[in-house]
Amino acid sequence: MFDLTILRVNLFALVFLVLSAVPAFAQANDPVPASAICLIADHPGIHESDAQTAAMLVCYELRKQGISVGDPVYQVQNTANVYRVVLRRLGEKVLVRLSWETPVGTVASDRQLLLGNIEEMISAAPRLVEALIHQKPIDTTVNMENVVEQDAPVHRKITGESLWNIGIFGTFVPDTGIKAKPGWEIGWSYEVPDYDVGTELRFTGGGDEWGEDFGFISWSIGGRYFFNNQNFSPYLGGGLAISGASYTSDDRSGLGAYAVFGIEALRLTRSRLRLELRVDAPFFKLNSSPYLMPITLGISYHR
């Protein structure tokens, strides 16, 4: 009985100590003071009325969070708890920083945003206060109604040119009588100084010297690499093609590859002229005919 009484007393004392420590612990770890001063920092390049309005927006949001602050001021005592609003101009953009300093000059926590213009402070002020008071990353405070320029940057791209092309070429097929058979092509490409990517539709056909019919059609996607960025540049390229071939009474279609070598002229103008040698290598073979590997030499106009 004596031991049970002692145990109850000890448990009661332990619970009392824990409950007494919780408020003190919470207060020690709560980064938000009950009252503070809203301070406008130096703001070179920012109009005075804009700086005052920006600070007032921050002060209003602080009061909504339960923090007692007055209107923004310019000077405080060195021992004060302050929320400092810093505005800096970077070209046309505005960098805004909200910091909690206790005392003045000792930054306990801060958050910042890069704005496209000072008007974005309407969206930025609630986010800065929420992130600072609740110790959140600033990126987690964004929603559909408060996006600022920092959240939606414009990613720069290398500029290029879209070019349509039309061309003619002659076709030679090894191990057959097909020589200099005419063909045509149309296509589109996107070109930058060092390379291009594009697609082409090509057709050629006719009879050989023994009167045997030949036809080859292909749709290809690939690219080219230019060896310089001058007005005239040699290039190499290649890609994949879906092609169909017929020779005598045999025909077949399937996937293939191609390689090109050529020279592009007039690169400094809006138009282009290409002289190109191309080799098509289908991944299939006709049943009763030699392996058809069309080799073409042609010229094309691009604009």
Defining traits:
alpha+beta, Double Stranded RNA Binding Domain, Porin, eight-stranded antiparallel beta barrel
Write the layout of secondary structure elements.
Layout: H1 2-29, E1 37-40, H2 48-64, E2 82-90, E3 93-101, E4 107-115, H3 121-133, E5 161-172, E6 181-191, E7 195-207, E8 213-226, E9 233-247, E10 250-265, E11 272-282, E12 295-302
Parallel strand pairs: 1-2
Antiparallel strand pairs: 2-3, 3-4, 5-6, 5-12, 6-7, 7-8, 8-9, 9-10, 10-11, 11-12
Helix pairs in contact: 2-3
Low-confidence stretches: 18-30
Number of helical stretches of at least 4 residues: 3
CATH architecture of the largest domain: Beta Barrel
Structural class call reads alpha+beta
Helicity range: 10-25%
Tell me the overall shape. Answer: rod-shaped
Number of strands: 12
Number of domains: 2
Give a short summary of the structure.
The chain is an alpha+beta fold and 303 residues long.
Structural commentary:
The protein has 303 residues and is α+β, with helices and mostly antiparallel strands. It has two domains: 115 residues, Ribosome hibernation promotion factor-like (Double Stranded RNA Binding Domain, 2-Layer Sandwich); 142 residues, Beta Barrel (Porin). The strands form two sheets. Strands 5-6-7-8-9-10-11-12 form an eight-stranded antiparallel beta barrel. A four-stranded mixed β-sheet has the order 1-2-3-4, covered by helices on one side. The longest helix has 28 residues. About 4% of the residues have low confidence.
